Amino acid sequence: MDVLNLHEGGIVEALNARIYGNATQTLVLSHGYGTDQTVWHFLVPFLACYFRVVVYDLVFTPNVNPDLYDPKKYTKLESYADDLVSLLDELNVNKTIYVGHSMSAMIGCIAATRRPELFEHLILLSGSPRYLNTKRYFGGFERSELKTILMQINQNFSGWVQDFAPKAVGVSYKDAVTEFENSLKRMRPQIALSVAKTVFLSDLRHILPCVQVPSTIIQSKKDIIVPNPVAFYMKRRLGGHAKVEILDTEGHFPQLSVPSLLINVLRKILDI
């Protein structure tokens, strides 16, 4: 396992892990690209009434010491999965409920194949194992489209953010768009480009059959980043029992745009 090279302190400190609530069952919230742990601010107060809620920052966020982000190491989501496993070990928890948004959905899947005892249930929110289309798989993007996105990030990062944020969140959710836009702008452009390449060019479809932990896939009805067919593809391929919940909304960030709707679905999934 290739974990963070920490000069002092542990991974809990390095990734700014915080715990809310004092229940016995641990629930982990892991954010996606362009955000940090604050993306969960609408959900944490509710979930902390029922769980010991752990939130943390992925290593690419501006909240983490930039020296810890190694662009060569983090060209694969497996390295993020190593960080997650190390974090859970340091917290001395297992049988967690894991909620992974976007890229963190697959980070959780990878971690669950390596250390299944750490997870009781995976909740995969707006996740995808592959974003590129192939002849037999619809991921949502043609290679030319992704090439354009990466070029825009490299050449005019702030302009790309302003264009991308409303499309990703949904133009009708103005407050959520502003929140995501401000969060994304905080990233260093070169780190943002590096992480975008890692996410958008990944192909982790082979991981899905190896996941034996029960899973629930939550997906918006309309999401320009992850189209609906991906959710049902994941359901068919996941090795453990899996089900799909489709939210009657648009956008890639339901935890920001429609938190009450997402909470209602989580209530049903978690039986609370």
Automatic annotation (TrEMBL):
> What GO MF annotations does this protein's record show?
hydrolase activity
Keywords attached to this entry: Hydrolase
Gene3D superfamilies in the record, alphabetically? alpha/beta hydrolase (3.40.50.1820)
Q: Which InterPro entries match?
A: AB_hydrolase_1, AB_hydrolase_fold
The domain of life for this entry's organism is Eukaryota
Q: Name one Pfam family in it.
A: Abhydrolase_6
Outline the extent of the AB hydrolase-1 domain.
Answer: 27-259
UniProt family annotation: Belongs to the AB hydrolase superfamily.
Protein's name according to its UniProt entry:
Alpha/beta hydrolase fold-1
Phylogenetic classification of the source organism: Eukaryota, Viridiplantae, Streptophyta, Embryophyta, Tracheophyta
